[in-house]
Amino acid sequence: MPSAQEPTGFRPRRLSRASAATQIADQVRDAILRGELPAGSRLPAEHELAEQFVVSRATVREAIKLLSAARLVESTRGAAGGTFVVVPDPAAVAASIGDTLSLWFASGSTSLAEVSEAREAIERVCVRLAAQRRDEEDLADIRRAVEGGRDPEIDSDAFLRHDLEFHIAICRAAKNQVLELPMTAIHLIRPWTNTVVFELLDLGQIADQHQAILDAIEAADGDEAERAFDRHIAYLAELRAEALHERPETDVPIASLVAQQAHPALARLRPRG
Amino acid sequence: MPSAQEPTGFRPRRLSRASAATQIADQVRDAILRGELPAGSRLPAEHELAEQFVVSRATVREAIKLLSAARLVESTRGAAGGTFVVVPDPAAVAASIGDTLSLWFASGSTSLAEVSEAREAIERVCVRLAAQRRDEEDLADIRRAVEGGRDPEIDSDAFLRHDLEFHIAICRAAKNQVLELPMTAIHLIRPWTNTVVFELLDLGQIADQHQAILDAIEAADGDEAERAFDRHIAYLAELRAEALHERPETDVPIASLVAQQAHPALARLRPRG
DNA sequence: AGTCTTTCAAATGTCAGACGTTTACGCGAT
DNA sequence: ATCGCGTAAACGTCTGACATTTGAAAGACT
Fold first, then answer.
1. Cβ of residue B57 lies below 7 Å from strand C
2. How far is Cα A202 from Cα A192, in angstroms, rounded to an integer?
3. Distance in angstroms: CA B83, C1' D10
4. Which of B18, B61, B71 sits opposite A62 (nearest CB)?
5. Which among A34, A65, A88 has the least Cβ separation from residue B108?
6. Which of A91, A132, A256, B87 to pair with A222, CA 20 to 30 A apart?
7. Can you tell me the distance from the alpha carbon of A193 to that of B265, in angstroms, rounded to the nearest whole number?
8. pLDDT tens-digit readout, A180-225
9. pLDDT tens digits for A18-67?
10. Cβ contacts of A182 on chain B, cutoff 8 Å
């Protein structure tokens, strides 16, 4: 008989048979992904599913909870109620990813510098694409955000909201969902990163920089838009460096920020199902 | 009495008091995010939670299922079993985000072109950063992936695995988790995108292009690494154009791909809890 | 005939208690 | 010291019942 330890890249898999609830959830999930259960369609009633799978209703309910947490299905009560396959909503998906990301950041060792670096790299691409692809609606959105940020009496919360709207609108104008989604998710956790330097911001200067980016995008000048964006970023980097110099503890793992203040933007967007 | 319709931006919130299970899940989730329940810590036993919240055990279990689907907690059976706050694993988080993304792509109208565009934009940044920051371990990983792809007898599956490993290793070498995570997620759905043109690939040429990128990264030459990457991308774009020309139906919404073949990479990585 | 009210039934939400299954840990025998 | 076994703790599942919500049909009134 051969030895139990073979030199091949073999590693014993954690077998532990999945629970009934998990298996049912998997089957339903696959059916949904396979297209057998189109969005909006209704699953059989719980007692019927229980009958079909030969399990108790409690088990079926646990399976449904697994799917509903993943936003695959939604349950409603009442006579015409039931469990329905959810029609995906981009905002909800972005919020969900933002949730996952912030959870990860919160327990990891990711620093503000890392978030900023990624944000700048991806958004630079978005800015360039936005200059090529923006339509009138995009321009209106961006313009509204810039105007909103000009209010001299603005407070921290409102400023961050307009800033968020500005950058998200640009990413939307790039017309690439695969870029827009992670970017939106990153922006959603950015309020945490910006509160650190908020007191140092010259709001008028920020508004002017935003305006310059908007102008270049409106003129469909990708190169200039990228340059304007770079100037904006350079200004922020300068502030961060200043903050870092005065208070070296500024570049901390995000976990401590999360612990201090409860998510301002995500609180509104977080799924509650 | 004022009319029910006011001109202000008011919109009635969906009130419908959340279910007990949802509320419990929210409370526990907040406690975890707030840091009161650190990773690895153990929740009270189900019957204790039921007692504390004054609900039945079934309700507590449904709440736990909601959290476990979000990978926030994990339950184990046995004497020393219980429900524990999960220690986030980057690979698992990436797989989870990849899951969410592909689900979204599957039900949306996202096209292969969009995925490729985003992938190329972000990875270009990773390649440049990798040239600056790679350590010996990164180089070894990348080298191993390149060598693995040289096997002339390689089949489609093995090739895609090594290709995936190559690109993920580069993103890892960029030493920015915020870039690495979405990039890995995108790469995880890439097998779907690559199978379309696989039959047209000149595997030897691909290996040479990978080698050129590796060499530049090893030489810490960011500019050359980016150029080599651009050449690689240009070659792939050429193939895609060719495929698009021969079979215009190639640039289809990803949904149809998902429907046809069951996720090759995700099948192994998909959460089963 | 049309509208309002009442009743009803279907479906999810929750409860209570019980039993099955898994698994770490300690105890005793070898 | 090691092996085997029992035990208890915890999750997994079952059963059956009741509570709550809500659309829709049946009925009553104008």
1. yes
2. 18
3. 10
4. B61
5. A88
6. A91
7. 34
8. 888 887 877 655 555 556 667 788 888 999 999 999 999 999 999 9
9. 899 999 999 999 888 777 888 899 999 999 999 999 999 999 999 999 99
10. 182
